Each structure stands twice: as C-alpha cells, then as structure tokens.
Amino acid sequence: MTMLSIDAIDTYYGQSQALKNVSLEVNDGEVVTILGRNGAGKTTTLKSVIGFNEPRRGSITFKGEDITHKEPYERIQAGLGYVPEDREVWGKLTVEENLKIPADRGGNRTIEDIYAVFPKLEKLASNNAENLSGGEQQMLAIGRGMLGGTELLLLDEASEGLAPKIVDDVRRALHELKDELTILMVEQNVKLALDLADRCYILVNGEIVYDGAATELENSPEIIEQHISVD
Ligand SMILES: Nc1ncnc2c1ncn2[C@@H]1O[C@H](COP(=O)(O)OP(=O)(O)OP(=O)(O)O)[C@@H](O)[C@H]1O
Ligand SMILES: [Mg+2]
C-alpha cells in the first residue's frame, strides 16, 4: 500500500523554483532515501510534505488523504513526524520534557520505548537539551519525531556533523526502527543511506533524475559519481 504519494509538485521560494515536477512514493513499511548534492532540493521536498513550504502546483497524498493544503499540525496529527536538518530540540526543556510534549498527543509509542532505542537519553532525562552533545541532540530529535502517533518519519540529514562513532549509533538505532516505522530520509552520507534504505531517489537541481532499489544504486558507482559525489 502507498503511504505517501507526492505527485508532480513545483515548490518555490519567492520567484525561485526549488522543486520541478517532483514525484515520489513511499509504501507502508519502506525506508526511502532522497539523495543529492547541496542545494538539490532535498530539504525542500520534506518541507513540502510537512507543510512548511506548500507546493504551488501538484499534490501530496498521505494515507489516501489529500494533504497538499493542510496545516503542518494537521499533518502531524495525521501521522507524520519531522526531524529537521538543524534538529531544533527545545533547549531550555529537559530531555524528558522534550519527549513528553509529543508523547502526550497519544499514539502507541511511549517515552520508555524511545529510551529502549536510545539508552543514553534515559541517563540524560533530567538534563536541559541545550547541554547535550550534537549526537545526543540528534537522538532526542529522532525520539521526539517518533512520538505522538507517527507512522511516517521524515528525517533530514540524521548523520550531518556527527563523529563517525555517533553516526554508527544513529545507524544502529535506525536499523532497529526500520521494523516498526516507515521512513523518508534525506542523506548526504550515501553509504549510510543505501545501507538503510529499500529504495532511493536522486535529486539534481530540483528534479528527480533517478529512482531505483538501493541495491541497484549500490551497484552503480557511475550514477553515484555523476549525481551525488562531491569532488
Ligand atoms: N529559505 C530559502 N529561501 C530562498 N531559497 C532557498 C531557501 N531554502 C532553500 N533555498 C534554495 O532552494 C534550493 C533547494 O534547497 P534545499 O535546502 O532544499 O537543498 P538541500 O538539497 O536540502 O541542500 P543541503 O544538502 O545543503 O541541505 C537551493 O537552491 C536553495 O538555495
Ligand atoms: Mg538540506
């Protein structure tokens, strides 16, 4: 079953068109990744889905419902979770409070479930989020995004700016989550993305130029070289 369907969207910042005729699908239970160089339109795609930048043309359907013109909070109520590129944890609140706010909206998952995936967060439960390391803040942002009835998690550059060991922790956690969550993730770390994803799309200058199984792209270094690698 298709969970999310993006159908031919054009998204702009003022006069400047960031997405051109972008279409993609995420099926129930899949991990789908969007790859592409800086400025390709990856974040804009997620912002279009969560409602922070509505497309000017085209439509977005989530669980069979047209959400193209719904408010972000309505999309979150419908089961979308969002982990922004800059994490945006609430710095003056504790770790536990950061989790409690979405958890109180309902949903099957509990704060204990999040601590089971990220044991470190439990130890830091009463610390203010602003005092966490970058990796810990990322774990908190992911945990927060999963709570409150999330069925599809939108994950923007989970590995960005993290030390290799922390990227490994995040990779392990995402592997655990794969079984119970549908994920649309943006990544610059191609290896991490292809390791986790079932399918992938490549964006170049706001246009989808490739889509295929992750294993297929893994075996096509020339495509990675052409569209993603930075030399
Ligand atoms: N707030 C904004 N105002 C104007 N232009 C923007 C804004 N945000 C992004 N853009 C432009 O839209 C295009 C797509 O940006 P986007 O942030 O989606 O790229 P990205 O693929 O996420 O890049 P990165 O890998 O650097 O995060 C770029 O040309 C960018 O300069
Ligand atoms: Mg981005």
Helix count from the secondary structure assignment: 10
Average of per-residue pLDDT values? 94
Give the C-alpha Rg.
Answer: 17 Å
Bound compounds, each kind once, are: adenosine-5'-triphosphate, magnesium ion
Strand order of the largest sheet: 6-7-8-3-9-10
Can you tell me the CATH superfamily? P-loop containing nucleotide triphosphate hydrolases
Structural class: alpha/beta
- CATH class wording: Alpha Beta
CATH structural fold name: Rossmann fold
Q: How would a textbook summarize the main sheet?
A: 6 strands, mixed
Give a topology summary.
Layout: E1 2-13, E2 16-27, E3 31-35, H1 42-50, E4 57-62, E5 65-66, H2 72-78, E6 80-83, H3 95-103, H4 111-117, H5 119-123, H6 134-146, E7 152-156, H7 164-178, E8 182-187, H8 190-196, E9 199-204, E10 207-213, H9 214-218, H10 221-227
Parallel strand pairs: 3-8, 3-9, 6-7, 7-8
Antiparallel strand pairs: 1-2, 1-4, 4-5, 9-10
Helix pairs in contact: 3-6
Adenosine-5'-triphosphate binds at residues 13, 16, 18, 36, 38-44, 85, 188.
